[in-house]
C-alpha cells in the first residue's frame, strides 16, 4: 500500500509539473535522470502558474496534503511570494462521508444501542464536513441541559491509516530536501514536517480538543471579548466530541455584520486584543483562527463579541519566548531597531559574529516604510517576506516553535483587513504590550508574585520556628568542624613556610660548598660548609614532615 501511495503521489506531483518548481541545479543527477525515465507522466497543466499547480496537486492528494499546504502557506521563508499567496487560499474540499456511518461511530463511541438514547433530532445530514472530521446537529435528551442544541463532531473513519502513510512519505521527502537544498539546514524542512505531524495528530484526538476548549473558556470566562461554547465532557471521546451549538454570524460575512449595525472598528480592535491576550497573558492561544472558525454574536452589535470554534490546534509559549517576543514587539512599535537587532543576537537566533549595526540597518529598511499607515495600506505577508529575506542574509535560523504564532498573526491581519481596513494596528497593540511588560517587570509583578506564593508561605509559616531551630542545631557541629579545619590549615601553611626557608638555605649552602671546592680553598672550609649543608638539609626534611 505504501508503494502504491508513493506512486500516486509521484504521478500527481509530476502531472502538475511540481518538479519544475525546484531549480534543476538543486537536484542531484539521480533525480534528474529519474524524471526523464518517467516520461509517461508529463506536465498536464503547463498553462497554469506554479502556485496554482501546487495548490491543485495538494487538493487532489487529500486532506493531509491540503492541511500541510495551509500550514506551509505561513512559512514564507520557504516559498516565493506567489506560491505562498496561492497556498494561503487553500480550503478543505472534502466530500462528506455517509451520515449513517457517522451515527454508527457515535453509537459505538458512547456505547449506545441507539442514538435516541442520548440525543433528540439527530441530523443524519452533516452540518459541515472538513478534512479531519464532520459535524452533525442534535439536542441533548437528559440532564440539566436537556433540550440544549448541540453539535456532534466525528472523526472520519480510517483516516489515521492514510495520515500515517502520508506523514512517513513527507518525512522522507523532507530528508531529501534537507540534504540537497542549498538552504536546507537553515530552513529545517525535517523540523517543519515534525511540527506538522504533532499538530495533525493532536487534531485527531477530540478529547484533547475538548480539553483545549475548556481551558480557553476558563481563560475568557465572562469576557466581553470572546465566547467559547460549552463542551459536554460526558459525551466526548477520542473520536467524538459534543459541544454547545452557537448562533453567530461568520466573521467573513461583512455585509450581514454591516446590516446589523455591528461596530466594525471595535470588532477589529477586539480581534487584536484577543490575540495578544491569548499569547501574552495566557501563553495559550487558538492557532487556527481562520474565518471559518470565528463568528460574531448577534447580541449587542455596538459591543460585539467573538465566538470561537474548532480548538484542535492551539499554541503555547514558554516564558523566555514570550518575554523575547514582547520586547521585540515593543521595540518594533517604538522603532528601536537597534534593540530589535540586539534581542535577536542575545536570544541566539542570530549568530554572535553578525555585525549588529548592519543588521539594524537592514531591519530599518524593511520596517520603517510601514509605520503611520492603516492596515489597508500594508501587508504583513509582504513585510514577513522581506524580513525572512533579511534573516537569510544574516544567517538567522528558523524557529519551528513559532510557526503557529506566525500563522495566527497572519490570520489576525486578514481578519482586521476584512473588518476594518483603517485599523491602526500599532496604536491598538502597543498599549496592551506596554501594560503587560509593566506587569512583568514593575511593582505589579512583585504584588502578583506575593499573591501567587501566599498560600505556600502561609502553609510553611507555622513550621518556620522548628525549621530555624533545626538549621541552627545542624550548623553548630559544622561550625566546629570548620574551625578545626582552619586551625589545621594554618598549621600546615606554617610548617610548609618553615620547610621552604630551610630548603632555600640548604640550596645556598650547597652552592657555596661547590664553589669552595672548585676554587681549591682550605679543606677545613670545604668540610665545614659541607657539614652545614647536610645539617640544613636534615632540618628542611624534618620540617616538611
Automatic annotation (TrEMBL):
Pathway: Cofactor biosynthesis; ubiquinone biosynthesis [regulation]
UniProt KW Repeat keyword: no
Subcellular location field: Cell membrane
GO biological process per UniProt: regulation of ubiquinone biosynthetic process; ubiquinone biosynthetic process
Keyword Magnesium among UniProt keywords: no
UniProt binding sites for ATP: 127-135, 153
EC number of this enzyme: 2.7.-.-
Record protein name field: Probable protein kinase UbiB
Lineage of the organism: Bacteria, Pseudomonadati, Pseudomonadota, Gammaproteobacteria, Alteromonadales
